Amino acid sequence: xxxxxxxxxxxxxxxxxxxxxxxxxxxxxxxxxxxxxxxxxxxxxxxxxxxxxxxxxx
Length: 58
Description:
This protein is mainly α. 90% of the residues lie in helices and 0% in strands. The protein contains 2 helices and no strands. The longest helix is centred in the C-terminal third of the chain and has 27 residues, at 29-55.
């Protein structure tokens, strides 16, 4: 399950980055903002998974 979450986080980060760059390139502020939001969502998901790994007993 954790691997799925990590992969989803990386996907969201990548997709958000693409939208942000494309939105900036074509001057579409809505797309740029949507990309930033999606990238942030991926960052938060990645941070959550990192915290769960740190707490997990070894």
